[in-house]
Design goal:
Layout lengths: L14 E5 L4 E4 L7 H4 L12 E7 L4 H5 L2 H6 L4 E8 L2 H9 L5 E4 L2 H8 L5 E7 L7 E6 L14 E4 L4 H12 L8 E4 L2 H9 L5 E5 L2 H6 L4 E6 L9 E5 H6 L1 H20 L1 H12 L3 H9 L5 E2 L3 H16 L16 H7 L6
Parallel strand pairs: 3-4, 8-9
Antiparallel strand pairs: 1-2, 5-12, 6-12, 6-13, 7-10, 7-11
Length: 347
């Protein structure tokens, strides 16, 4: 059994505004410039960039592994620059805000935290097809005295603050009458918390694939709660607003190839496992489990999807986790640009 160790690629993020009792901080280094200029839409699709900077994560990126972007963009005279690997969505968004990433994908929470911190460069592009919530869970060792989520009161709960797992934890606690202030939130990346759990340094782990599936095959564990009924989507594809407005054609190609890979992946989980095994150094059977319990295809930003994302943002504000109420429509692209970037194959 190969158990990879992904060293943390980012030091402590520079932050300047503390969020509530959790010590959450606003993302730093906002892009300087006129908001009106960055939101101005082009009347016709096109592009001017010679490089597209694509963010990716330490826990695997199928689009990167399949090398589907390079030939498409090479034909347009554009170079693909892969930026990462990032340990989680907040770090990717910070890099996007600093102009180092143009497009990428994150969970539902990072764009909300960024918007609450005053970041205007993040723009929603598309969303992922809803999943069953089986790829993330709150787990303990099989012999742990912790039997249910309610037993977590006063315990240390490790997760990356501002990530998709943050929402999962807060909602799971809310179900049993607990607030995030009733536990000790520990800000760790997924790789860090995975290693600490394996080494028996922490009692509880907020798990996410592929590390979740890996640990399931490595040590006896018990699932207290998975994300079924909590997970609202497979996250969002996002872009740097100025880049998207100036290069809608490049963004359209990126989303088109992402959806093509997603269609292939949902039909070929065994092949997905083989591709990612080389990238992640994890055994193929484990990655096949990962592939079978997640979704890959893209969806348009429908009114229903946006309404669900607004509910997540409102929940964070009501729980005093973000400092101000946000309207996610404030960072949407104009209808003209939105139409220009979405391929016809995406419903």
């Amino acid at each position: 059994m190969k158990i990879p160790f992904f060293p943390q690629r980012c030091t402590v993020l520079k932050r300047i505004v503390q969020y509530s009792v959790l010590g959450l901080f606003a993302l730093s280094t906002p892009i300087v410039g006129s908001f009106l200029q960055t939101t101005q839409a082009q009347s016709k699709p096109g592009f001017s960039a010679k490089v597209i900077n694509v963010g990716y994560f330490a826990f695997g990126d199928l689009i990167k592994a399949k090398k589907v972007l390079e030939p498409r963009f090479q034909a347009l005279g554009v170079k693909v620059n892969w930026v990462g690997p990032f340990p989680a969505g907040p770090q990717l968004i910070e890099s996007l805000n600093a102009g180092r990433v143009d497009v990428g994908s994150v969970g539902e929470s990072p764009p909300i935290f960024a918007q609450a911190a005053g970041v205007t460069e993040v723009a929603y592009l598309a969303t992922g097809k809803p999943n069953k919530g089986e790829s993330s869970a709150i787990v303990v060792r099989a012999d742990s005295p912790i039997k249910k989520v309610a037993d977590l009161k006063g315990r240390k709960i490790p997760f990356q603050r501002g990530s998709g797992l943050h929402y999962f934890v807060v909602r799971a606690l809310k179900e049993v009458g607990l607030k995030i202030t009733d536990v000790q939130a520990v800000n760790l990346t997924l790789a860090e918390s995975r290693d600490a759990f394996i080494q028996n340094k922490i009692d509880v782990w907020v798990a996410f694939d592929p590390f979740f599936a890996l640990v399931q095959k490595t040590i006896p564990i018990r699932i207290l709660r998975n994300a079924a009924g909590i997970s609202t989507s497979s996250g969002f594809y996002i872009g740097r607003r100025a880049f998207v407005n100036q290069n809608p054609e490049l963004v359209r190609v990126y989303l088109e190839e992402a959806d093509k890979v997603g269609e292939w992946a949902e039909k070929n989980p065994s092949e997905v496992a083989k591709v990612l095994s080389t990238q992640l150094k994890i055994d193929t059977p484990i990655l096949e489990t990962v592939a079978r319990r997640r979704t890959y295809r893209l969806k348009r930003l429908s009114p229903a999807i946006l309404a669900e994302q607004q509910k997540v943002a409102d929940f964070y504000f009501e729980e005093k986790i973000i400092p101000r109420k946000v309207n996610i429509k404030d960072i949407l692209l104009t209808p003209q640009v939105s139409e220009a970037i979405i391929p016809k194959r995406i419903n």
